[in-house]
Amino acid sequence: MDNFTFFNPTQFVFGRDTENQVGAKMREKGFTKVLIVYGQGSVVRSGLLSRVRDSLQATGIPFQELSGIVPNPVDAPVYEGIRLVREYGIDCVLGLGGASALDTAKAIAVGALYEGDFWDFYAGKQKVENALPIISIPTISAAGSESSNSSVITKESIPLKRGIRSESIRPKLALMNPELTYTVPAIQKAYGVADIMSHIFERYFTNTADVSLTDEMCEGVLRAVIKAGPKTLFQPTDYASHADIMWAGTLAHNDTLSTGRQQDWSCHGIAHGISARFDAPHGAALAVLFPYWMSHQMQHDVPRFQRFALKVMEVPEGSSPEDTAKDGIAKLRTYFDSLGLPHSLKTFGIEEKDLDQLVKDVGYNPQGEIGFFKPLKPEDVLAIYQAALA
Amino acid sequence: MDNFTFFNPTQFVFGRDTENQVGAKMREKGFTKVLIVYGQGSVVRSGLLSRVRDSLQATGIPFQELSGIVPNPVDAPVYEGIRLVREYGIDCVLGLGGASALDTAKAIAVGALYEGDFWDFYAGKQKVENALPIISIPTISAAGSESSNSSVITKESIPLKRGIRSESIRPKLALMNPELTYTVPAIQKAYGVADIMSHIFERYFTNTADVSLTDEMCEGVLRAVIKAGPKTLFQPTDYASHADIMWAGTLAHNDTLSTGRQQDWSCHGIAHGISARFDAPHGAALAVLFPYWMSHQMQHDVPRFQRFALKVMEVPEGSSPEDTAKDGIAKLRTYFDSLGLPHSLKTFGIEEKDLDQLVKDVGYNPQGEIGFFKPLKPEDVLAIYQAALA
């Protein structure tokens, strides 16, 4: 186990009708004026936006609104949000909706306290040191943005999808009602399941020794997600499974499962470009890439992939550790198939001729690699993309 | 899953040499003057107290000291600590050592902000609303006090052991170095393992439906503890197992494993009197009582005890669910035996004639019961005590 710092100061209020507590909780925390950041029509149609407005009005908290945030959120609304915060003297940003609204809210919260271009932080030119307090009310279970320390934005003019990480952008308050996720389309629920599982995979595949405690936790949460996932798709008003998936989404990305482990993040790194250039849903890109990433990386640590196969995918012991590992990866792909997830990059309109540019888009470190488990060089990335064109 | 609020704002700094960061971290948090609360000679002999003093002096943070806290901490030092806080204008209390030092530090932090007698909170006459900030540097892995919202103190003049729970007494900062636990005597490490497992048991045995996610987490952490526990006793400088046990002790008691579950706490409730009247180590009392508690409660939910047997104790499936459950309980007792833990109340000098008073000492609710899983009436408590005299 590596030395670690764990700090997760988000206050979670989880369960039915919790969105109605937003005004009261904001007052408790001393926030006085809020910018509500949301996406397209669904939070309006579902009445959620009205309930949030009602709760704020009932407690006398003024608010401004910024709507129209799209999936794979882009930079333009961030600039507009920063302008609103400054014009109205807002002291807190509320992300209402999916990961896009949350990620945009975080970018605004960071940019509002900075005189230059907020993109400096995403481009790695500036380190995030502080941000306005952030509140989250998620309507989809996926990215764990409601309490994570990360945000990903696409700069449209390039286009490049880049992320920031900072303790200062962890939301102070997350109001999480699993019922709000009932009406998410089945395929988006599937993307969410793939995303949640991928967040755990990035932590599970590690070189750190002596991690049996967090291995057990990663495996346990993955098993629970694998069981609950299909229920959320096929029993769209089943509270228990939606609650499991929603809370697992938080645990998967707030480092509860990864204390003292070196994390990898190379598969996310090679998935971002797929979304940026081909508008592929993030969870879909991960669902395609992760099994190929695993096959490519398996030889680096067969026992770990064997353990994954036995304990997470619950396949029977094969004729060799390698066979068991392969069975586990195959069962993961079958599982993703059962949720209707894609299994080829072709799904996104990607062809062989696009791969060179995609390989170049990846955010390599100064050594020209990405990740930590077995760092990927450009030729590894190309090999994974090629396999994933199958 | 029940609705829940989860708030665990402690900043954890975990790993080798982390105690040397105490001054720098205090400064980061804005604390200016600290009362160090510790126990008997071991933190002096080990050099830990010196290192803490050095770190505080290096960052220019003045401190006072309160020493001599004993296991099953009592009320007298709390009054003395409150006096010191007021006399020196102290704004933060550091518990250095075992659960006793931590529990005392919490009582001081609460009492210092209250004009009346601090015992009013423990006697249930006052509700804890605020407290001075608390820092913890634990030297034993057991109670999870380093980040928990609870504190237990014994009033010597009665004697009565009583606890408080409040979000305001969760430490703001916990510096946790597993190496500090190497020199804990083997039997006290065993008490710690029993205590940690008991904290999870109190959460695991629940009537709440649809808790598969947290079931998996409880089971995973219990398996890791069961494996690491003996290593800490028999390989006293093995970092990995001491780190697992130390972090598991935190997870077991900071509600990471119990979000959305109704907890029980009846076994702790009937163990407190054993410690208060017979000076039994808390973990020892729990190690004796929990298997008998389980046997007594098994019929209330055989499938849960069966699941416990299969997934936590990893016994083979028996000829009936009940047999499997019994095998699991028997294996738990064998496991506790292997750590040198006692299995009879006689160990503490308790005789049949003492039981009536012990049954009366229990803190029943207004309905004359204790716990939630299957609430215990006085006759249940007597039956468990009688069985545990075997």
Structure description:
Chain A has 390 residues and is an alpha/beta fold. The first copy, chain A, folds into two domains: 11-180, Rossmann fold (3-Layer(aba) Sandwich); 186-387, Up-down Bundle (Dehydroquinate synthase-like, alpha domain). Chain A is 47% helix and 12% strand. The first copy, chain A, contains 15 helices and eight strands. Chain A has a six-stranded parallel beta sheet with strand order 1-8-5-4-2-3, sandwiched between helices. Chain A has a two-stranded antiparallel sheet with strand order 6-7. In chain A, helix 14 (355-361) crosses helix 15 (378-387). Strand 1 (4-14) of chain A pairs antiparallel with strand 1 (4-14) of chain B.
In the predicted model, the low-confidence regions of chain A spanning at least 5 consecutive residues are none
CATH fold label of the largest domain in chain A: Dehydroquinate synthase-like, alpha domain
Give helix % range of chain A.
40-55%
- The top-level CATH class of the largest domain in chain A is Mainly Alpha
**Overall mean pLDDT score of chain A?**
95
- Content of β-strand of chain A: 5-15%
Question: How is the largest sheet of chain A built, in terms of strand order?
Answer: 1-8-5-4-2-3
In short:
Two copies of one chain form a homodimer. Chain A is of the alpha/beta class and 390 residues long.
Tags for this model:
homodimer, 390 residues, alpha/beta, Rossmann fold, Dehydroquinate synthase-like, alpha domain, 2 domains, 15 helices
How does the SSE layout of this entry go?
The structure is a homodimer of 390-residue chains.
Chain A: E1 4-14, H1 22-29, E2 34-38, H2 42-45, H3 48-58, E3 63-66, H4 76-88, E4 92-97, H5 99-111, H6 119-122, E5 134-138, E6 150-155, E7 160-165, E8 173-176, H7 186-204, H8 212-234, H9 239-251, H10 266-278, H11 282-297, H12 302-312, H13 321-338, H14 355-361, H15 378-387
Parallel strand pairs in A: 1-8, 2-3, 2-4, 4-5, 5-8
Antiparallel strand pairs in A: 6-7
